[in-house]
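Example with several molecule types.
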Amino acid sequence: MDGVTRMRTSSRSSGGRTSRAARAALLAPGLVAIGVSFLVPLAWLARMSLNRTVGSAELQSAVSPQSYVDVLTDEFVWKIAWQTLQLGVLVTVLAIAVSYPIALFLARTRSRLRGLLMALAIAPLLTSSVVRTFGWLTLLSDDGVVNSVLSGLGVTSEPLTLTNNRTGVVIALVEIMMPYAIIAMIAGFGRVSKDLEDAAGSLGAGRLRCFLRITFPLSLPGVLTGALMVFVLTISAFVTPRLMGGGRVFVIATEIFDQATTTLDWPRASALSILLLFLFGVFLVLYQRLFRLVEGR
Amino acid sequence: MTRRISRRALLPLLLAPVVALSACSTGGDSDGVGDGETTIRLMAYATGGFKEKYLKSVVEQFEKTNPGIKVEYDGVVSSAEMLGRLRTQKSNPTIDVVIMDLSVAESANKENIFAPLDPAAVPNMKDLSEHAKVRDNFGPGVTFDNLTLAYNTKAVTTAPTSWNDLWDPAHKGKVSISAPPQLDGIGLTVILGDMLGVDYQRSIDPVVGRLRELAPSVQTWNPQPDTYTLVKSGQVSLALAWNARSQLQRDLSDGALGVALPKEGSIMQVNTINLVKGSKRASAAQTFINYALGPEAQAAFAAEMFYAPTNTLTKVSDAVAQRTVMTPEKLETMIPVDWNWLAEHRAQWTDIWREDVISK
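Resulting C-alpha cells for the full complex:
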C-alpha cells in the first residue's frame, strides 16, 4: 500500500501539463474495459433486480422492490447466507493455516530452487477449478485413493463419505485457495526481516517466543490480505460447492445459479447478486479497518 | 518520454478499445435471402447425443428433400439457457426455430418470444397426439420422453421393476436423484403422489414423508458430471433418469447401464418445436417445423435416440417401440401431468425438497 502511494505522488510531481493528457490516454483503455465488462452489466443487473417474475417464469418489466422483499424475508436465504459465511470462515482459517508455513519459507529461502518451488506452489492456478474439483471427486470417492489408503492401512473398515457433502467441499476449496493465499502472503511478508529475529534471538528469546512476538505480528498484513482474498473467493465460489456438494451444500452462489438458469427467476437472481456484492463491500471495509489497525501498531 | 507520446498517441489510444469492441459485435446478419438459398438457425440441445442424432436423422434428411433451405444447428445445454439467450435478442432475433421443454416454452410464449404457427404451413400439426398439442397453435410437442430407472448392471443383477426399489436397503448410499428445480425430482414427486393416491396439486405431504425415508440412501441430489456417467462407472447403482438418454447410454456402454420402466408407470416430458417471433425466415422455418413433425422425421429420430414420436401416424419397428413409451400398454400407465401448473409451483416444491427432504 505504501508503494502505491509513493508511486502516485512521484508521478504527480514529475508530471507536467501534457502528462495529464497522457495519463488520461493510458487510463482510457482500462476504464473502457472496466466500464463495458463490469459497470454496464452491473447496471443491467441492478435494473433486472427491479423487474418482476409472474406465474412460472414469465419475466415482466417493472420497477418494483418485490424481489428484494422476497429475498430478505425468505428464511432459506438467511440460512444459506449464514452457511456461506461459515464456509468462508472455515476455508479461510484452514487455507491460511496450511499456506502460512509454505509462504514464509518461500519468502525467506535463498535456495537456488526458490524459483522452481514458487512455480510449483502457484502452478495449480494454471488448471481451472472445475478440473481440480473433478480431481478431488476422484481422489475422495468411496473407492478413491484416500479411502483405499485408509482401509488398506486398516484405519477404517467402511469408506468415509468424503464427497457429495460439506467435508468434500471444504477439502477441495482449501486446496484450490492455497495458491492465492500463498501469493498474497508472500507479497505481504515484505516487512518480516530476518535481522529482527536474529536480534530477538540474541536478546534471549526462544524460537517459539520469537515467532509469536516478532515474526507473526509482522506478517499480519500479509495474512490479512491472504485471508480477505480467500474469504471473498470462497463465499463467491460456485464450481466446487456445486460439483462437490452433491446437492446438499447450499451457498449463495449456487442459489443464484439455480434461480438464473433453472428456475429462471432473473429478478430474484439479480437481487441475490446485488446483496452478495453488498456483503463484499462490508467485508472490504472491515478488512481496511483491520489492516489499518495492524499496520498502525 | 511521456510528453512525446501523449499528443500523437492519444487519439489512437483512445480509439483502440472502441474499435476493438465494435469488432466484437456481429457484423451484419447474413440471412442468406436472395441467393436462392435460405439458412435457418435451429436452437436445440447440445448434450447427451441429441445434437449429433438430430443432425443425422432429421436435419440432413430435410436438407436433402428441401435443397433451397440450409439448417444451422445452435447447440445449447438446457432449455432455461435457451430462454436466457432468446430474451437478450428479443428485439432482433437471430434464431428461427427452437426445440425446448414444454414448460419453459410456455414462458417464452407468454413473453412474446415465440409466435403461433400457421396451421396451413404446418399441416402435420393435425396428426399430433393430444399430449403434444399446445394452446393457440403455439409450438407443439416434437418428442416425448419419460422418467425411468437407470441401473448399473454389475451392481444390480436383477432389473428393478418398481419405483420402490429405490428404497431397497441394498442400494443404500448408491442412489442418485436429480432434485428440484430439475424436472427429474419434480417428476418423481408426481409419480409418488400417484402411487400414494394423493392429488399433487392439493398436497404433497405424504410424498415428502416417503422421500425423507429415501434421503439417507441418496449419495447425490445433484449428479456430476451427469447421472449416466455415475451409473456407468458404478459410482451409483440406481438412478432416476430419462428414458431417451438412458437407452442411448445403454447402447454406448455395451449394457453397463440398464434401463427399466417401473410397473407403476411414469410421467412424460415433452419437447416442443417453436417459431421465434420476428424471424425473418418464418416461411422456411415453418417448412422445417412441418418436416420435423412429420412421420418420417419422427420415426428416424425415434430409431436413433428413443424419444417417442408425437405424430400418431409415425411407424417404427417393434424393437424401437419397446424401448420408448410408444406401445399402447405403456402409454396406458403414463401418469397425467400438468406441466404449466408445475412450472408455477416449481419454486415452492424446490423449497419443500430442500427444507424437508435434503436437509433432513
